[in-house]
Here is the input.
Amino acid sequence: MRITVNRNADTPIYLQIKNQLRDMIFSGVLPVDFLLPPERSLARELGVNRSTVIKAYQELKADGLADSHVGKGTVVLPQTARVPAAPDRYINPLPWYQLFTESIMASHDTIISDIMARTGRDVISFAGGIPAPSLYPVAVLEEIQAELFRTAGQELFLHSPVEGCYPLRESIGQLLRQRQIVAAAKDIVVLSGSQQGLDFAARIFIRPGDTVIVEEPTFFGAIQIFRSAGARVIGVPIDKDGLRTDVLEALLVRHKPKFIYTLPTFQNPSGISLSLQRRYELLDLAYQHQLPILEDDPYGELYYDTTPVPSLKALDRHGYVIYLSTFSKALFLGLRVGWVTAPPQVLTKFAHLKQMTDLHVNTPAQLLLDAFIRRGHYERHVARLRQEYAGRRNAMLKALDKYKVPGIGWNKPAGGYYIWCRLPDNIVRHKLVANAAKRGVVFLPGEAFYPDGTQGDTHIRLNYTFTEPEQIDNGIKYLLQAVKETACANYEEECQHTLKPLV
Here is the structure.
């Protein structure tokens, strides 16, 4: 029996002995009932303390590989042999659903994957929050990438710091200053999209049974994430000025939530922005109740009429706001680069989770983005988006008015991606979805945006950025034809007299 001890190795000597004995047992070199050498004699042979050999034998016993008998010593135990299944033997299917955790079992909503699947050429999609592919700055990015291959070389494929490439964090800090947010590179952690930030926030703050306050309606992805973490999600209604702080105040006393989640600027799905007065009221309530605010700001740069009021992070003077944003809405979803800026104690936790989850955002995307920003392309691109998306918004508003059906209404967003559309009272949602799909149009039903899932059946969310301008008119015409058909199916006689044909 040959055992080698390496005193310069990092592995403790007792584990070296145990591992070599284990390998000999598994390979059959040491057969069943083989008597291992007494501790003293093996220790003397290897030039180690007896206690080292005793510890190695104890490890073998703990693994079920050996056992000690008084008067006999330590012997090798039999190992259960693997019996190969006969070719015709029936194997029971693995009961996967019995193995899943309760939180993942409860999270069965496939709305995001459904949206991604409904963006084919034969479909006019108003469903997804997707930027216009025809506006992607592909030529500029291709030029930058070619240059990076020449100049950066191997650096493109090296790892980056967990917090993100320092130059990109500096560039993000410059962008944030234009949003009136003061954040140095050290105050920023780069993420794989802002949705990863929502997941990290849930994992940092939420224990099963905790309460989280959200706007009502709000981003369905946030509802899914918070619920998967075991939170009870409570909604606060919004009006034309955003989240109603008068209702919020009572809920804070009653529920004592872990944090407030809000999209205060061009909110998803309503497109509404929180007024400046309400922003100060929200911050005051957070300070009074010592409650963090998770501010999600993917659309803040996409304003079409007037510059929006400052973000909550810009107004916060006491470090209560955790600010998330992303490049996905201004550039393209496939990039998957976002960021968080927050107090240092929070950023440390974000960086720790980043390290455990995927180590860091991919390096080529970070270097590409940094060069894109530093050369002024990002600001020029966003300026172009404001003009183009304003035109698409106006085209959708015009089409809604042109093909208007009695009982339907909508808002005019000052920025962002969405029009929040109210349906006639007599609409059955699942019938409307089917009737619209027959005409090749998809949209997002309103109940997806409510925490309890029982509200919002009178609303739908329409995205105007993804569809080309020449398709918007037809898409809205077909959608409102579907609304008319669905309404008439329920009230056929009344509709015959009150609704005129669409042209």
Notes: The two ends are 92 Å apart (CA to CA). DSSP finds 19 helices and 16 strands in the chain. The CA atoms of residues 124 and 441 lie 5 Å apart.
